[in-house]
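Suppose a colleague, Dr. K., hands you the sequence of a protein chain of 503 amino acids and asks what its three-dimensional shape might be. Before reaching for any lab equipment, you can write down a predicted structure in token form. Begin with the sequence itself:
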Amino acid sequence: MMNVVIPRDFHYNLPSCSVLRKIQPLCAVKKTSLRSKAMTSPSIAQDEDVSSQAIILEPVREDGIDVLLLFFPGGLTPTQAYFPLINTIQKKSSFRLWATILDPGKSPINLPMIEASFDGMITRTKELGFESGELSISRIFVAGHSVGAWCSRSISMKKSEGFIQMGSFFHTNPDNLAQYPKPVLSLGGGLDGQLRVAGIAKHAGEILSLEPEMGYLNTNATKPVIIFPGMNHAQFSHGIPNKERGDIDAHISLEDARAQTAECIVSFLTLHVKAEDETKQLALENLSKCVKRTHVLYKTFWEAVENQERQAKYWQLQVAGLEELKEENVVVIKHDYMDNFVYSKPWIDAKEKRIFVQLYSSPADKFGIVKNIWIKMKSSDAIHQLLGKSAKKSKIVRAADINAETFHEALSLTPEVSRRKFYESGKKLRFIEDCIVMTSGQDWVDSDVTMKPAEDGSDIVDVQSTVIITPVQGIASRFAGMHYMKLLSVARCMEWILLDSFR
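The predicted structure, expressed as tokens, is then:
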């Protein structure tokens, strides 16, 4: 049976397997002590400590090593939504697993709140019987979902033995998963429309790339990155997708999602807590199996994310339409800042037979991982003229055709199981005529590739690119002979096939 210890005046519906037990809150002396300790850090406000409202789930086992899981929920998600997952973890574990869930109340969960409440959560659990190890961090692990994971990983680094993030990923460069000094289990859903699958797939690629130096155990035990196919963002909690925030319907049951999640968490805990060697070997085999499946299904995706601009030379050669020009005749200047790109121009070095192309990768989602490609090329007419070729009128290369070709390449890179699911139920793309900008360059800059439901009511999404083509004659030389396009990257197409087509 799962004993649940809750603060006064907290109301919720318990799972049928649980036993409700109320306790008195911490005595006034201990509350004062905790708050005094919190106030020693100027970054932690006294009123941020909500540890007295934390919910404690006592172990379901009488024997085994004591282990504590400090859990931080996602935003707008009631704490009780995580009870079934935690109960599943407790049942699968061979430890006396305690779990303490921070309840932020009506306030959004945030880093100051977590820092102020962390020690109090541990103190309350110890008062109920949790036996810690020799060190203050011994057998203490931090887990979080979504923003709860995002906000808790910094304190986990200082005050726990390991960190478990669900539906979240390390986003900024200083906050680097590979360099994080504690073990981290990263779990994501293949249909997570809120945090996006690209971020955690990128993690998997980063960790795998280090295996020649860091070894097999780093990939599979210390920094395992696992994506569950068919699982969405909400299935780490109550399973109800927040579609306003982008999440989509799952392709697996909530029970299956919880079982897979719990199995991986238990295996991770087993590997990093003292246990029998045979038990650890089984745990490693389980994590390794899940990590390998992630590599099989998402390796081509994270490789596409890592090199989203690789087709730029090919696109310029297509526009040029000259067989004698090869990749070495095209130089791509990649811009990290849009302002620099906006004021740049492509040019041709006729003597060296080189075309200099300007390129900028525009974020296609709120995390900026998957990109659309903005490219400034020289037009076919300008290349023929400056290289002394005949002035025959070549066929205009459409952005729509390039996008269609890119999409078919993405399909070929998508694993068969994902491709089949897309063909069965994913929304299909139609690449419609380019939007030719005739007014000003600024209008082109302000635009991007659009993906909109078809106006004919069919279950098709129309993709359209904006394009500028300027004449060679009758215009200022600075603006003559330009061919600008906004295009889909292979990564963006793969993200559509794997995720967004199921919206």
